[in-house]
Amino acid sequence: MQKPPSTQRNTRVRRARDFRSLSRLVLLFSCSLLLAAGFVYAERQHFTAVQFGYESENLRKERHQLLAEQQRLLLEKEQASAPARLESAALQLGLKPLRAGQVGTQRANELRRLPVATALINPPASFNR
Asked: Is 35 within a domain?
């Protein structure tokens, strides 16, 4: 496009500014910016949800492994505390089997009394708190 020569009569004529179209343009820009911010927020939420999903799956696998290890340790504990194994371990340590004469029984009228509780011996120490 060619620039008009400066000798023309209407070279200083300018177009009037339309403030309504400018306000519509600002409104359109702000709505577009708000929409773009909404998309960015939604994507961030989506990525966070996916990350939590992966983390949850990893924790689920770890829980499964820990439960399997717990079962293995319980089985090992049960095997270690089996009477036959305890007897063989005791014999290796040099312990001898129990004989009937070594075990004493207590008759019902010979039951020992439990010691008196400290609260009955020293009442101010326990009741005035």
From this structure: yes
